[in-house]
Every structure is written in C-alpha cells, then in structure tokens.
Write a structure and sequence with these properties.
By secondary structure, the protein is of the alpha/beta class. It folds into two domains: about 180 residues, Rossmann fold (3-Layer(aba) Sandwich); about 150 residues, Rossmann fold (3-Layer(aba) Sandwich), CATH 3.40.50. Helix content is about 45%, strand content about 15%. It contains 14 helices and twelve strands. The protein is globular.
Length: about 350
C-alpha cells in the first residue's frame, strides 16, 4: 500500500475525507517519504532547488493540522511535533541554561536537533519583533542540520510579520522559507471546525450576578472539594491572583492574564498545570489595548493546541467584542478555535 493510500485510510477510519486542496497537499507531503519506511527520505526532491520541507498555509479550519498530524503519525523516522510557541520557549530555556557560553545558540540548537530527522511545526506565525530575528537564525540552523520540516500557518510566507516596519526586517527569513520549502496553499471554501453546532455552556455574558453565580456553580462542579477564595499561583516564576484554584481548574480575571505584562511562556506554563481555565471579566475597555488583544490571542492558541478547556465571561457576546477590538490579527483563526473549544467542552453541570 502506498503512503498516500495509507494516509487516506487512516483518515477514513475517523470519518475524514480529503477535498481537492487537501489531496494536492498530500501529494506534496508524500514526496518526503516512500511508503512511510524508515530511511525512505527522497533526496531527489530536496536536491532540486535545495528544498527541505513543506509549508502548509490557508484560512483556519482548512485541514492543515489534520494533514500534518496524519503525516506525522505515519512517518517512521526520528521525529518531533511541537507548537511553534512551545518551540520558542524551549530554545530560550536551553539558551538561558548556557548563559555563560559565547556559543550558547550553537550548542542549544545542536542539542535540540539531536537525533531528529523530521520536525513538525504547528501554527508558524510571527507577530513579536523580539522573536523575528531569532526565528530566522533558528530556522537556518535547523536546515543546516539536515532536518526536514513540515509547518502549518494561516499566512503565506510573504504575509508573515504583517507590521510594515517589522516585515522589512523579517524579509531574509521569508526568503529562506521560499527557497527551502514547497509552499502549499489549502484554499478550500469550507471551515471544517464550524460544521458542528456550538455549545455556549462555557461562554457567559453579560457581567452580572447571574454570570458570577454560573461561574461559582461550574467551578464547584469541577472542584467539589475546593473552597472558592482568593489565592495565588506561581506561573513562569511570577504570581497570579485567582478567585479559586483546584487540582484541575483555575479561575482568574481576564485583566490578570491578558492586560498585565504576560507572554506565551506564561500561558504554556499555565496550560501545563491545569485542564480548565476559567477567565472572568473581559470588557470592551480592556480590548481597546492592542497588546491586551494580542495576549488573549496567544492564550487561545496555547489552550487550543494543548487541548485545554476555557470558560469565559464577557461584557457582551465575545464574537461581537472581538470583532470590535483594536488591532486584532488572525481574528478568523481565533474565532474558529473558540468555536471548536466550545463544541468540545464537557460541562459538568446538568
């Protein structure tokens, strides 16, 4: 059985069938291996124009992650799959441990690449200027180690780092991607995440006594042995005030996580500690600050990728508020992810 046939069969077992755009992407991915056999990397593809990987991009819900994950499961080689934010945190942590060395970047990259033939990046996107130059260096180092890369993104390479000033500084990295990756556009019309009915049992508005009582009931249903009282938790070496903290669920304020100076590192740490985040008090005034909006989008990315639950209370309907927020990038992706998180949330309340 060919690699493509095995791939289609594995998806069909889950009730998933590829559309035309996804079939084209599969054809490109299948060139990386022959039948999923170890050592079956096809060098001819990558010797031509020095291609080293595949970059899948398109609107949210077009099947990019499904394709990459299915490919990752079938390929029999030394491999690693990681969300891009998580990868950046890993690299920064490795370098911090080597702070006394002038060769810390080189050593950290070599350590990360040890024993890896294939690296799959989910959600390759860049909005932070502080990371933009670093990402270029890391990507170049990964390619120099001979690692094959499959990446998913909502952006075509030329659309990465959309801020005009920052984009200019990121152009060398864009050129690197265009040179070494086969660029595949998943341009299907259907957002597969929005095919199912949305369960709004985890989204509450407005911010009134009724919503507050709903939050209290929901937390007690998830954490019956825990008292609802103000307490603090440590996240990424900093303290966060919370309304309540249980073994699996934590309840804190929107401003505490998104208005305060936070990064995706904080959110990754939080997602590793708890299964459900209850976030109360998202207001239109908070969303007037583009940095607050950016942090909220980072938070949703991390929770979604880590398959964590979200319960949110807001001043008005969250979709209306986000559509009216300042400086929103990737709004369609965030709304699509919130829809999916709502659909999969299992409320403990009857």
């Amino acid at each position: 059985m060919s690699f493509e046939e095995s791939f289609r069969l594995s998806l069909a077992d889950r009730g998933i069938y590829l559309d035309n755009a996804q079939e084209a992407a599969l054809s490109t991915l299948s060139l990386l291996v022959t039948g999923g056999k170890k050592g079956g990397w096809i060098k001819s593809l990558f010797s031509k124009d020095d291609k080293r990987g595949v970059y899948l991009w398109g609107e949210p819900g077009r099947g990019k992650t499904v394709l990459m994950d299915g490919y990752y499961e079938l390929v029999d080689t030394s491999k690693r799959r990681v969300h891009f934010h998580e990868f950046l945190r890993d690299m920064h942590q490795r370098m911090a441990l080597l702070s006394g060395s002038k060769e810390r970047f080189k050593i950290a990259t070599k350590e990360f690449c040890e024993g890896i033939d294939l690296l799959c990046f989910d959600e390759f996107h860049v909005h932070d200027i502080a990371d933009s130059v670093f990402i270029g260096k890391v990507l170049e180092a990964l390619l120099s180690h001979g690692i094959r890369i499959v990446a998913t993104s909502n952006y075509q390479p030329d659309g990465l780092m959309p801020d005009p000033v920052s984009h200019e500084r990121f152009k060398p990295t864009i050129a690197l991607i265009n040179k070494h990756f086969d660029i595949v556009h998943l341009d299907g019309k259907q957002d597969y995440r929005t095919q199912h009915e949305i369960d709004h049992s985890c989204f509450f508005d407005p911010l009134d006594a009724r919503t507050e009582r709903a939050f209290e009931r929901l937390f007690k249903a998830m954490e019956p042995q825990t008292t609802i009282e103000v307490c603090h938790i440590e996240v990424a070496n900093r303290w966060i005030e919370c309304h309540a903290v249980g073994r699996k669920a934590v309840w804190t304020d929107f401003d505490m996580l998104c208005k305060a100076q936070r990064s995706y590192v904080d959110y990754l740490d939080l997602a590793e500690q708890f299964e459900v985040l209850m976030l109360s008090g998202m207001t239109a005034r908070s969303l007037e600050n583009p940095n607050t909006v950016k942090r909220f989008l980072w938070l949703i990315d991390v929770l979604y990728d880590k398959d964590k639950g979200l319960v949110l209370s807001s001043e008005r309907n969250y979709e209306v508020m986000l559509n009216n927020a300042s400086g929103v990038d990737d709004l369609n992706r965030t709304l699509s992810r919130l829809h999916e998180m709502s659909r999969t949330f299992k409320s403990p309340l009857p």
